[in-house]
Every structure is written in structure tokens, then in C-alpha cells.
Amino acid sequence: MIVRSRILAFGYRAVAALVIVVGIARISGLWTATPTWSSFLYYTVLSNVLCLAWIALSAVVTVRDAQRDGWTGVSTPSARWAAAVMEAITVTMLIYLFVLAPALFTQPGSYQPFTLTDNLVHIVTPMLVIIDWLLFVPKGRLRAHDPLLWALIPYAYLVFAFSYSALGGRFAGGTTAPYPFMDVAKNGVGGVAVWIAGLTVALVAVGYLFVGADRLLARVVTAPRESRDRRPTTDPARGC
Questions:
Q1: What is the three-class DSSP state of 106?
Q2: Can you say how many angstroms the Cα of residue 59 is from the centroid of all Cα atoms in its chain?
Q3: Neighbour count for residue 174 (Cβ, 10 Å)
Q4: pLDDT of residue 103
Q5: What angle do CA 205, 94, 19 make, to 5 degrees?
Q6: pLDDT at 231 over 50
Q7: Cα separation values, 161 from 14, 46, 89, 136, Å
Q8: Which of 33, 53, 197, 199 is the most exposed place for a label (fewest CB within 10 A)?
Q9: Nearest CA to 187 among 112, 125, 99, 82?
Q10: Do 3 and 135 contact (CB within 8 A), yes or no?
Q11: Helix axis angle, 152-166 to 79-95, nearest 10°
């Protein structure tokens, strides 16, 4: 289902942007006297920042299109980029739910997963972006190779994180890796490579699920229109 209302799209995107800002501010302490700037070294926060920028841009484009074409219709800077951002933040949610959170429950320490802040940046933001894509982004524009291109976003982060660590940079707590599965000292090069390979397969598979959903939704939206287009304009029974 595509909601062809720019009023609803703008309202949703404005609220979503505000919620994402709250999540980023809470996890980085931006509202405190001593923000934790090292939070911005993590994929979680960077992917939330990417979503914030995208949702804000989408809201601006929605208003621009409304002023030009009216408040009925759909608006997005790019349907393909909308899916790319959705994939990037879905990675955040899936890794948190299936890799990081289970490990945190079994590790010693006082940190507890599924706090309000964790939920905002790992679950709420991804769901807001996915819902935006479902409701307000045109369908049928994704290409078969797009999931392979979307993988470049998390891979760019891997290049950054490993380079930063190799140059002497340290993450929170003085660690050399932002996430446990990226810790070469603990897992070895082979172990890290296996983790990355497995996550890549999962991420590309999810990407193709999105492509499949895009094509299915495109057919669902197109079918009623084609049915209306083929409807006779006269009543054959009346002969006029």
C-alpha cells in the first residue's frame, strides 16, 4: 500500500526525524555537559545519523513537491537510495538483536540491553525507516543488483573501523574493535573473516527480500489501476 498524501508523509517524516534525534542525543550524551563523542565511531550511531539526514531530506523534498504539484502524491529523493538507507539501518537492528544482545546477556558486567536508549537507536529508528519505505516510497524501481551495492555501506564502515584501529585509534573503553565480532586479537583474522562473510550473506539475503517485497508491492499497486483502465466506459446491456 502506498499512501498518496504528502501531508501524511511530511508529518510522519517530521516526527520520525525528531525521534531519531532523541535517540542519537541519548546514546551520545549530546544533552549533557560532557558528550561522548566516541559514540560517533560506531556503526550504530553513524547509521542513525544517515537515517536522520535521509528522513530530513525526504521531508524537504515532500514539501517542495507539494508546493509544485499539490499535496496528493508520493515524494522521495530517490526510491533506490531510500532502500539503501533502509538496508543500512536494518543491519544495525539485526546485528543488535541476533549478535550483540544475546552476547551481552552472557557476558559479565552491569550493562543491560534493551534499555530505552538502546531500543531507540537499534529498533525504533530501523522500524521508522522501514515504515517510511513501505508507506511513502514508490515501488518497482529497485534493480536486481541493488542488494550488492547496498552492502558497500557497512563495508565502508569496516574499512573505516579497521583503518582507525590500525592507526592507533581506540573505541570506548580503550578497545581496538568497536564490536566483539571485529576483534582480531580475540577471534583471529580467520574468525573475523568468517563473521564478516556470514553477516554479508545475511545482509545480502535481507536485501533481496526487500527487492522481492518491492516488486510484489509494485504489482499490488499497479493491478487495481490496470483494472480501472480496462473497465468499459459504456454499459453494453444498454447498447450505448
A1: helix
A2: 16
A3: 6
A4: 74
A5: 125
A6: yes
A7: 31, 12, 17, 34
A8: 33
A9: 99
A10: yes
A11: 60
Helix, strand, coil percentages for the chain (3-state, nearest 5): 75, 0, 25
Coil, strand or helix: which one is 202? Answer: helix
Domain ranges of the chain: 6-228
Rounded to 5 degrees, what are φ and ψ at 45? -70, -40
Gap between the Cα atoms of 53 and 78, Å rounded:
13
User: Which residues are paired to 72 by β-bridges?
Assistant: 5
Q: Where do the DSSP E strands lie in 94-225?
A: none
Q: For 96-136, write each residue's pLDDT tens digit.
A: 999 888 876 554 455 677 899 999 999 999 999 999 999 99
What is the C-alpha separation between 231 and 184, in angstroms, rounded? 64
Would you say 38 and 97 are in contact if contact means Cβ atoms under 8 Å apart? Answer: no
Distances (CA, A) of 174 to 110, 199, 227: 18, 25, 62
Computed from CA positions of residues 78, 153, 206, 10, in that sequence, does the dihedral angle turn out positive or negative?
A: negative
Q: Phi/psi zone of residue 162: left (φ > 0), alpha (ψ -120 to 50 degrees), beta?
A: alpha
Cα separation of 95 and 104, whole Å?
12
CB atoms within 10 A of CB 4: 14
Q: Is the pLDDT of residue 4 over 90?
A: yes
| Spatial contact of 234 and 15, defined as CB atoms under 8 Å apart | no
Round the average pLDDT of the chain to a whole number and report it.
91
